[in-house]
Predict the structure.
Amino acid sequence: MDDSLYFEHQHLQVRDMVCDFAKTHVAPVARELDRTSTFPWENIKRMGELGLLGVPWSEELGGAGMDQMSYYITIHELAKVDASHGLTVSAHTNLGTSPIVEFGTDAQRSRYVPLLASGQVMGGFGLTEPGAGSDAGSTATTAVEKSDHYLLNGSKIFITHAGVGEIFSVTARTTPGQGNRGITSFIVTKDTVDLDACRALGVGHVENLPKVRGVSAGKKEEKMGWRASDTRELILEDAMVPKENVLGTVGQGFVNFLKTLDGGRIGIAALSLGIAEGAYEEALKYAATRKQFGKPIGTFQGVSFSLADMATEIEAGKHLLYSTVRLKMSGKPFKKEAAMAKLYCSELAMRTTTKAVQIFGGYGYTADYPVERMMRDAKVCEIGEGTSEIQRIVIGRHILGDLLHEPGR
Ligand SMILES: Cc1cc2nc3c(=O)[nH]c(=O)nc-3n(C[C@H](O)[C@H](O)[C@H](O)COP(=O)(O)OP(=O)(O)OC[C@H]3O[C@@H](n4cnc5c(N)ncnc54)[C@H](O)[C@@H]3O)c2cc1C
């Protein structure tokens, strides 16, 4: 892709900086972090210092003061080397921080965003429940109004950073029987599960951040991919949430989280494209050096066609991703395009990594090469932040909405 189509000078600088960081600090540890399912606190500290945990937020709020394009480039570049690092930035920035930036009061913004944007603590977003996955409006978590607080009870599952994080936006039902309009968002806090390590490293924990009693993390999920990312249940047990922690308007939680997910879907598209490109680059190098029948395997048409398909689809994915980012930056509606970019790039990541493993033959099936990790990391991109089926529903509603006199959501 010609860089000048979507990028300006500062975007290329960000890309170079993140690429350099990923090669120096992520590539050497990615395999071991994946094997041991370890959250990369040392790299979190480094990424915080580089501004990578608050790329699009203003400097006043503790962010790097860059734009949305720089943010999605950051995820894309990190994921070329390691999807877990890319996901950490994406979940922390969009799911963990953006709801407070976008829907919070001035007091909430100035209390929580600087801690998140500077990377001092990790954030997350608690939406999914055992009975409310794709059908997120079925939220069963309850929020009962008391004098100066709400009492929250429920279970949020598969929550990225539920263990390592300290600040979360969660949804709960404030008015039973009102469907989606009965759902409200709240900010909740808890201590990180890695207190000792965080205190020793000086990252991930803030002593004087008031914690909400009754919020805790469940056991860590044993996952196929994104293994260096922390995924757990977030438990709300008689959690006493002060009224000042209501995020946005009471009853607007559903509408607001749909907006958050639109931006998140572009993040998963960038992450997926990074995985695809990382796997393609590994396969390309391998095809040029691995010899069979006395020749590099890349000289065989079967292998070169596979690489040609990968390169073509990655190019298409880049245009879809970065044109959607431009749309978002211009303030125009981008819901359909975000769903398309997420759908296309996540399925592309799965196809490309599968082809890359094939090009590596038996070696591709071992942990000696990163393509097997990339293939495992790709799968969940078709599931998280709305499955491929849900993206097709969103796109279908948009393209058929007018014809069926049913405006797309
Ligand atoms: C590693 C990981 C990290 C995650 N991080 C977070 C997080 O930080 N915060 C958070 O809130 N959630 C998070 N999630 C949850 C994720 O968003 C959900 O898993 C996802 O939305 C799907 O919900 P579900 O798992 O309940 O599947 P279900 O909704 O039960 O879906 C099961 C299958 O049915 C299909 N299906 C469902 N409804 C329809 C329909 N109407 N038409 C056609 N097919 C349909 C789905 O596409 C899927 O194939 C995470 C999940 C994972 C695996």
In short: The mean pLDDT is 97. The chain has three domains: 3-117, 123-249, 255-401. Residues 91, 95, 124-128, 133-134, 158-160, 223, 226, 231, 380, 383-387, 389-390 surround flavin-adenine dinucleotide (CB under 6 Å).
